[in-house]
Amino acid sequence: MIIMNIREAEKPMLIDNNYVHRHEKGFIICHWMNAISFIMLFVTALPLYTDTFKFLYDVFGAYNLQIMHRVFAVIFIVTPFLGFFIARKGFSLWAKEILTVNPAEDMAFMSKFPLELIGLHPEGVPKQGFYNSGERMNSALQIGIWLLLVASGLALWVGNSYLSRETMAWMGPLHSAAAGLGFAAFLAHLYLAAVANPDSLRGMRKGNIHVRYAKAHHEKWYEDLIARGEFTREEAEKAIKADAMGKSASGSM
Q: 20 burial class (0-12, 13-18, 19+ CB within 10 angstroms)?
């Protein structure tokens, strides 16, 4: 009996009896470095495109704004490489998941995605892994945007001495198009994280998410965690039930 009690006490537990670990600290740092540097790049370039933001030249000075743009460009460029040093496990998993393609499953997920946009979790959605189909597609898009921004940005920065005039003529429009697409993707990502699925935002703030959200949106991963002994099914179901009862009680008040 004593041995059984010791083993029981040693079983892995959910964080605060409700949450499951999702992202390591280094991965979270890189995520916010990428997001902040992109937004600052976008903001510091805005006076070039619209008079509405010409006041930034008056506040910071055109030259200083250009320097700021280049500083954040360097941060934007080095962040993914930094991630492979301070968050190798998280970045390796992210890369592996992006390369995992299941056309039938992905199309089935995307057919239900419009309902996800309004915060619903529709029936018939294929069980998802650590990253769902939408997150994996978004990641692939972000990689493409990053490559376009970096390539065209470096060309505009130092390419005059190395590239032909004809090639340089394309760099400005390409850089602007990539920035516009990136900003649209950023807004969609922000909406999904902050409005449609606010539980996911916790994962990028505290590194963990509620086990209820893990089961509802990443059930393959949830089942894998139970199979690996990270927590017990009974423990998870107890937390999910308590969460549902708490929401029901607060909704009836």
A: buried
pLDDT of residue 2: 39
**Which residue's entry shows tokens 């998410």?**
209
pLDDT of residue 123: 79
Among all chains, which residue has been given the structure tokens 């920065």? 157
CA angle 122-209-247, nearest 5°? 65
| Per-residue pLDDT reduced to its tens digit, 36-61 | 999 999 999 999 999 999 999 999 99
The dihedral over CA atoms of 177, 174, 35, 113, expressed in degrees to the nearest 10, equals: 50
Between CA 52 and CA 47 the distance in angstroms is 7
| Two structure tokens written together for 32 | 């916010």
Residue ranges in the chain modelled with pLDDT below 50: 1-10
Question: What tokens appear for 238 in the block?
Answer: 């107890």
How far is it, in rounded angstroms, from Cα 40 to Cα 72? 7
In the chain, the DSSP E strands lie at 19-21, 208-210
pTM of the predicted model as reported, rounded to 2 decimal places: 0.88
Residue in the structure block whose two tokens are 């909406």? 191
